[in-house]
Amino acid sequence: MAHIIEGRLARAAVGLMSLLLVPGSLRAQLPPPLPAPAMEVREVRVVRAVADLPDGGRLVFGDFGLIGGLPRAGVVRIAADGGIAGNVPLNVVGLVRAARVHDGWLYLAGSFAAVNGQPRRGLARVAWPSGALDGWNPNAGSTAAYDFIDIVLDAGHAYVGGEFSQVGTTPRTRLARIGLAGTGAVDPAWSPSANGRVLSLALRDPGLYFAGHFTEVSGQPRSFVAMVVAATGMPAAFAPAFNGHVTDIEFDGPLLYAVGCFTQVGAFLRPRAAAVHVDGTVAAFAPQVEGTCLTSIHLSASHAYLGGEMVLVAGQPRSGLARVQKATGLLDQAFAPALGLGRYVFFSSELQDGSVLVGHDFLRASGAYHPMLVRLSGSSGQPLAPSLASEGDGSITAMVELPDQSIILGGTFSRLGTVPRKGLARLTPQGELDPGPMPEVRGNVHALATDGSFVWVGGAFDRLGNFAVQGLGKLQVGTWQVQSDFNAPVAGAVEVLSLAPDGLVLTLGGGFSQVAGQPRTGLAKVHRSNGTPLPWAPQVSGSPRALAEEGGAVYVGGSFSAVNGTPRSNLARLDAGGLGNLVHGFVADTDGPVNSLRLGPGDGLYVGGSFANVAGQPNRALARVLRSSGQVDPSFAVTVAPAGASVHALIADAAGVLVAGSFTSVSGTPRANIARLDHLGQPDPSYSAQPNGMVTRLAVTPARILMAGFFTGVSNQLRFRLAATATQASPVATSLQVLARTPSSTVPYQWSRVDVVLTTPDHPGLALPAGALFEVSDDQGNYCQGSINPGNGQGSCELLLTDPGPRVLTGRFPGRGLYLPSSGTLAALVEPATATPPLAPALPLRSSGLVFYGQPMNDGGVMLSGSFIEAGGLSRNSLARLTPGGALDTTFAPQVRGTVTLLARDDAGNLYLRGNFTAIDGVLRRHLARLRPDGSLDPDWRAPDDLCLGGTMFHDADQQGGLLVQGCAELVQVAPPGTNYWRAPVLRLDPVTGALDPGFQVMLRNDANLPQLRRVHRHGGHVYLAGNFLAVNGTPRQGLARLGPGGMLDPAWAPAVQGTVWAVRGAGSDLFIGGEFSHVDGQPRQNLARIDGNGVLVPGFQPSVDRSVERIVVVGDTLYIAGNFSEVAGLSRRHLARLDAATGVPDAAFVLDGENAASGALLLQGGTLLYGTGQRRIGGVDRFGLVRLDAGTAQALPGPDFLAPPRIHVLARDIDGGLLVGGGLMVPGTSHRGLVRIRPDGLLDSGFLVEVDAFVYALVVLSGGDLLVGGNFTRVGSQPRTGIARLDRTGAARPGWDIALDMPPPARPGVYALHLDGDHAIVAGQLGTADGVARGALARVALADGALDPAWHAGIDTGQVLALAADGAGGLLVGGNFTQVAGQPRQNLARLDLATAALDAAWSANANSLVRSLLVHDGALFVGGNFGSIGGVSRDYLARLTTAGTVTAWDAQVGGSSFRVVHVLAADGPGRLLAGGQFRRIGGGWFSNVARLDTTSAQAAPAWNPSPDGPVLALLPASPAPDRNGEEAVVLGGEFHYVGGVERPGVVVVPAEPLVPLDAIFCSGFEAGPCGQAAAALSEMVR
Predict the structure, then answer these.
(1) Which of 685, 839, 1161, 1271 could form a disulfide with 1256 if both were Cys (CB 3.0 to 4.6 A apart)?
(2) How far apart are CA 193 and CA 222, in angstroms?
(3) Alpha-carbon distance 894 to 1566, whole Å?
(4) CA angle 1043, 1048, 1054 (to 5 degrees)
(5) For residues 1291 and 1236, what is the distance between their CA atoms, to the nearest angstrom?
């Protein structure tokens, strides 16, 4: 079985196209795509309908996938200001021709088949704006063809017109009236009919007016416009005599305006536009329009907009659109948009600002690229921003190489990269798009041929450049002029062209019936010079699509059943001369279409296609047959896999044949969609490009192979449908040297920088590959990664070494493209001891762990992973196993170096681990590993070490047995601006070896956010992908997709989820999904839904869950859900609920009591439900990490606790010298929670018992020994206390001292900082209200009773205050996350009057991100946090200011390549301070997370380096240490586990001064700087 794991990191790249990162072990064999071409291939997509919205915006419908570069599948909302609004919760399968908003509903008419996953045959109604589908379904039951072209509505009915013969089961001929109530009954008494298509409708009491192609209505003569009585359907006397088709009508008062193909109305000359009165008489409106036909009219207050194929209006040039006065038809001279290369305008609509939205089939507006949809200035008609270009994915369907090695492209495209190119383009020999002019094609190009002087163009088009050319044209090479003397109009489509060997004749094949007016069925020959047809005229029953010619023979392939009346299946040989007689001795029938033919060596003919058998012999997709007989050539032995593989393009030469199509291997060798074979059928080992989708066309020059198709990447680099690789593939040897490590020796858990250089010894000066990565690792699995500068070959990365002793660093360049791998080594030293070692034993503190994931095992046991270091009282680092009875398995204890977060299991019981680990049981394994069922490491399965994993959660397997992992996300930057998007691949690992499967190609896309694959679930033979994405392999899929074998996207299964899907679980043929979403297929579903096997929402299941659902378990008719919710179907359910799987009704008897906690794993073990949670009190008993529950009653069962290191946020010295430690902590086996006291002798004070239900963040010791404590708790012991409490010496809450903090849920009040001010305390955090009075983030309370000071109000009403400091001059400095104080702008830092809370208006030093710590010391203000600038001066994370708020030159240069922040600052005597947080470098040296700094020079003390392995959040500066006989020591608290290589979870006591000067350790590389000077001085002092 396969197993699916996804990761969580992302990496952004800058450039036109980003590079997808894949294992270097594969890169060495992959010729990378050449830099050019690298461009999007886009094609225009038609828009057909517009609906006015109540807010002044518009809904536009069409068959597009992009609008203005943004993904919008078939419908887009245009805001009233012309901008592109968010996604519309509407999914229509098929074409919408008309849309109307009426009485809160959106009515749709067209030729579509489904709406929001439900069958709807051309007519539908959805609620607006929710998009929820209604039961109105008037065409249900119809078996006839339908095309509803227009719809209008009155108070009780909808009127539809179009091309149809029935509505529902009721016969109706092109007109019908339908009730709006219920399901939409057809009015049985209303039955007018028209004898031609109805195109447009208009209502005006008492009639329904309509227009189209008809000449009779209900048997009465009517010339293209008519009226029936709306109530009865009886024809009225209204009968204006138009002499041609009328395409659109619209009323303005008593006048009916009409446009179309007419020239006259009655006796009046009215070319293509007219107005008539309701009595049928012709009005004065008379614009003079010259052209073919107008197709739309739109009336504004004073004007009429005319759209269509026009040349002149009132004698003035106009193309596509004109505006005339509504009364007279006089042309508005100033409004001149000039639409180009098209015919039709489907609608125009004037917006509130006077601009005009136009839907059309033109390519340009005023010469600029604005295909299909554009907003025009209401004054000039010029295009307005933003671009509304209506596009989808284009395709290259023809390529031909010229003698100068340039390539001509033909196809279905309108834009290549940023350059408009319609149907034809030229690539330079370097692969760049030729900026010179090229004829534009109105239609599509399918085939190209050239003799070097001319290029013949075949396809389905009617215009080539400025010439009317039907299906076949000729261009001169160089000038690209259309050759007007070549005249061979084709009735149909040309699919393939071939130049006959005689140099005179052009052979063409396709789906046509005439060439130059002469009957030709599928095949023809014409003179190359002028297009005159030859007598050669074989009759083909089907469609030829491949040709090959030699001497007297023409070989034809395609999809056909007979030639000249003789049965031939898809392949035949014809005489090249005469009439094209069939050669009966050649029989090579195939059981599927033939797509490509090429002459091979000797008597061979290469045949590629979508077949499994040739001439009765098994030959999938590719064969070589004998030209003489059609028999399969046995000397060409080739197998193409998998089943269903196809070949679409072939190019043969003397050395072999280049094969392209859709396949994963050739002759047993992995080859993804393109391969180069010798003439025996063996793959060329030096060429293995890997496009991640089908390749359909090839072109070859001496320097490059150009490929086109339906791919999005080649050799793991982004290329959209067009790419080139080098023709040859000669590997290049490289040499990677590890130059130096700075510092050269370190203590455990101290960071350092490693420098490398990459060269190409055999090719000095050769340019290095852009984007090349390297890594450096030691022999214990520690590693870092970096990138090579292609200019000088240099690179560096930051490395953390954890194990003392001599180490060997190995640098590895994994290879890239043809650059071969290389490696180098460097000796390193990690000192066995630090100058600041821990002085006291580890404190017995822990916090609640959290079991994230669980997997049931074959024997009934359960494997669990998560955030814990202890389980059931035994050491278990993030991985543990429960016995079938629910007890901890004491025999299963794998040693994990790092953490395991995610699990997957196969049917044999093997366990796949995913996490941030580097070794399992001492064997190196990075991020991914497989354990056998007995818990031992599987030595044969190893994923590539350099696999770049992206962000995911997971479970389950694919159908072929491969482990699926999400790769890193990449930002793709494309033009036009604003169309950038994110992509992330889903990769497949081999189930036997763990190697990457190059043939598996699945790509997720999102726009503004990273694609996130939250779950993968195998069920019923399918693999379901769930998460937050908008497309899979380029096909729109919102949050949910289904894959078939090989990763092929299921095209018919496409429910659209508005939001993120977190959980998926199959049950029978249905699927339950949970997450954070509001709609599924446009219908309201709040975070939980059920979908049937066809992807259709199950209507009876719709419980509303108020917040996210993250885990789902289904057992029979019972559904368990877990997540971050508090209500299900209106009932209180905190984080866990049991529901009826059919109805979604919560089980009233299943209610989990206890307090809030995080939500983790959810799985069943027999009749026991295992639920991963944080600290949770159930039935008066605290549970940690995991709760075992009776699956029927939710009663808690005994089970092991899972514990993690404590998270220490605050430290304080007690009045007797003891140590107070607060944060997220507990003492196992006791009731201590949140705050403990360590006696002066170093032991836990059991008489001081504090029990809070959350974290303690702030603490001050009062003069009498009482404590003021702040946090995010809601109780202390059994006493309610919200965020703040006063405790006595025993830890009990003082009765009567209670200030009520409150915030609207789901927010929770919290106190993060406290400051004593005489008999009051300043309370800071996120307070909301205090005793019912609004206080926002700051309040002042009395120490005696907690009473709020009503006069003291700072006015920080939103945000958080995280830090406080008095400046000694009557001021209070406040830092945090806020933007205003007392209504005045202040960003994250401000000064208040301590006595009154008034803002100091003269003091301003804004920080551009959070301020987390403040310290007034040595006459200055020190500020720490997340910021990068403060007071307008660049300072990273730490700054020194004057007390007046001016930034000084002092700069500690906090750094490191990962997340950096300074959390805490503490004075450490005159001239120095302590800084703690999350960083790698500070003060000129390498220090992990804590350092001592000089307050004058900003240099770090070189030998004082405790080196904790995680963030430092609390500091207690030098004072007598507990149980150290008065020795001065510093106490650190935070989220660390090891300190200097010694286990000290959460809190550690270290010497205040270094025990040994270690200048060599801490100053290597800094000897000439202050660090080295300070070390020398320290050494001298010690001596």
Answers:
(1) 1271
(2) 11
(3) 42
(4) 50
(5) 9
Cβ pair 818, 866 in contact under 8 A: no
C-alpha distances out from residue 904 to 3, 922, 1025, 1228, Å: 6, 22, 15, 31
Do 125 and 119 touch, CB atoms closer than 8 A? no
User: Contact 334/371 with Cβ under 8 angstroms?
Assistant: no
Closest CA to 991 of 933, 943, 952, 954: 943
Bridge partners, 1067 (sequence order): 1070
| Residue 1099, token pair as written in the block | 């209507």
> 1570 by DSSP, 3-state: which?
helix
Q: What is the DSSP string of 683-744?
A: BPTT----BSS-EEEEEE-SSEEEEEES-SEETTEE--SEEEEES----B--EEEEEEEESS
CA dist., res. 138 & res. 154, Å (int) = 16
Starting at the edge strand found earlier in the chain, the sheet holding 66-67 runs 70-71, 66-67, 390-393, 41-44, 415-416, 419-420
Query: What is the pairing mode between strands 454-464 and 669-670?
Result: unpaired
Distance CA 1291, CA 875 (A): 30
CB neighbours of residue 602 within 10 Å: 11
How many angstroms separate the Cα of 1101 from the Cα of each of 261, 1072, 1075?
Answer: 53, 10, 16
User: What does each C-alpha distance from 499 to 451, 555, 890 come to in angstroms?
Assistant: 8, 13, 78
Residue corresponding to tokens 């040309």: 494
Instruction: Please tell me the predicted confidence (pLDDT) of residue 1520.
Output: 55
Nearest to 297 by CA among 270, 241, 240, 259: 259
Q: What angle do CA 311, 257, 389 make, to 5 degrees?
A: 55
CA distance 346 to 989: 50
Report angle CA 453, 457, 459 to the nearest 5 degrees: 170
Is residue 633 within 8 A of residue 662, CB to CB? The reply is no
According to DSSP, the β-strands at 822-830 and 745-746 are parallel
Task: Phi first, then psi: give them for residue 1046, nearest 5 degrees.
Answer: 75, 10
Residue with tokens 């694919």, as numbered in its chain: 958
Residue 311: phi, psi to the nearest 5?
-120, -50
Q: Based on the number of CB atoms within 10 Å of its own CB, is 736 exposed (0-12), middle (13-18) or buried (19 or more)?
A: buried
User: Which tokens is 1422 given?
Assistant: 């020190």
Local structure of residue 1579 (DSSP, 8 states): H
Per-residue model confidence (pLDDT) at position 1526? 54
The answer, yes or no, to whether the previous bond of 642 is cis (omega within 30 of 0) is yes
For the chain, list residues with pLDDT below 50.
Answer: 1-29, 955, 957, 975, 977, 1521, 1523-1524, 1557-1583
- Residue 131 gets the label, from left (phi > 0), alpha (psi -120 to 50) or beta, of left
Residues 6+ apart with CB under 8 A from 588: 571, 607, 614, 615, 625, 630, 631, 632
Q: Report helix, strand or coil for 26.
A: helix
| DSSP for residue 1251 | B
Calpha distance 1019→1021 (Å, rounded): 6
Tokens of 523: 């095949």
Q: How many CB atoms lie within 10 A of CB 1035?
A: 15
Q: What is the DSSP string of 1470-1487?
A: TTEEEEEEE-SEETTEE-
The burial class, CB within 10 Å (0-12 / 13-18 / 19+), for 939 is exposed
> Residue type for 485, please?
D
Over the Cα atoms of the chain, what is R_g? Answer: 38
- C-alpha 1009/C-alpha 980 separation (Å) is 11
**Distance separating alpha carbons of residues 1183 and 1175, to the nearest angstrom:** 6
Q: What is the pLDDT of residues 1519-1564, one digit of tens each?
A: 654 544 556 899 999 999 999 889 999 999 999 988 754 443 344 3
In this structure, the chain runs to a length of 1583
Three-state DSSP class for residue 384: coil
Q: Could you identify the residue written with the tokens 């045959």? A: 121
Report how far residue 65's alpha carbon sits from residue 1372's, in angstroms, rounded to the nearest whole number: 57
